[in-house]
Amino acid sequence: MIENAIGMVSFPLGIATSFRINGKDRLIPMVIEEPSVIAAASKAAKIAKKHGGFTMKADESYSIGQIQVVDVNVKSAISKIKKSSKQILKLANSKSHTLSKMGKGAKQVSCKTIKTNSGPMLIVELLIDVGDAMGANVTNTMCEGVAPLIEKLTGGRVILRILSNYSTKRLVRGTATFDKEEIGGQKVVENIILAYQFAANDPYRAVTHNKGVMNGIIAVANATGQDTRAIDAGAHAYASRMGRYSSLTEWKKDKKGNLVGKIELPMAVGIVGGIVNVHPMIKVCTKILGVKSAKELACVIAAVGLAQNFSAIRALASEGIQKGHMKLHARNIVASAGIRSDKIDEVTRRMIKEGNVSVHRAKEILKEL
Ligand code: MEV
User: Fold this and answer.
1) Which helix (H) or strand (E) holds 220?
2) How many CB atoms lie within 10 A of CB 264?
3) 177 and 254 in contact (C-beta within 8 Å)?
4) Summary mean pLDDT of the chain
């Protein structure tokens, strides 16, 4: 899969349970090194199930390819591109017979001008329906394929030909209702909404709030072989779309006082291509998840992001994060204290009982044993 490989670093694979997404129950593979994330997602999913689970919807899988044109008379170039858009699309689509046969592929050409310190530039964008693939390769191939024609038509010079990871034509959105009684009553609901308002209005909190969302998203993306950097980059840019970095989720009360969460973000994922059909464990995970399309996968991933965010802010707005987190992290602490494997369980048990989880205490308990 990569160059100069010398080995593998493996991460734990777990299964989140209790998820109902668009009426379908799912077991969700998650790959993550952080304790408590999978437990938190499963707990949130169980609560959401009482009100039907997660209702999610994904856009068609439209990828955006960008072609940068310089040394050009932008105005006349735009009119030439517009006049020749059919020819450009035909050439782009000749680069993928698979997409063309499925009625997918390049659908639209558009132009925009950007002002730079080196003068105005023309950016030509291809909108490409990439079907069930993440689509980076086909997008780049099409951009490179049409670049000589764009140069010929505009008289300009093309430099970059590459997809944009800001996948705003490939959004996923969804909602879930969390019963007020299940989450500790009206006061907890109100505190969660106040916690959300903090994130919505302060970038320092929003980054951490969204980190919690990404705990869920990236873990499922890892398990299903996605390009997690593309998802991350797109998500954080989307969180800044209003001109200031803010929350990727939104939390409100419904008429009955239950908590309603919403999420919306770009989600460029695929179930064909990339390493999805190559890596044996990714194949197993995709089979466990049972998704039949990239859109379905996007819905699952965003639902886990919303679940994760719910659990994090619920804990933060009530008992605090450390109680549950340290309980689940205790074994790692004991192991890092260098304690023999046959003593790990007992030391962990005693530390949790005492509510004092630390390397120092782990060593003390070992001495006492
Ligand atoms: C920890 O991995 C994630 C949290 O910090 C998220 C949050 O603060 O909302 C708990």
Assistant:
1) helix 203-223
2) 18
3) yes
4) 95
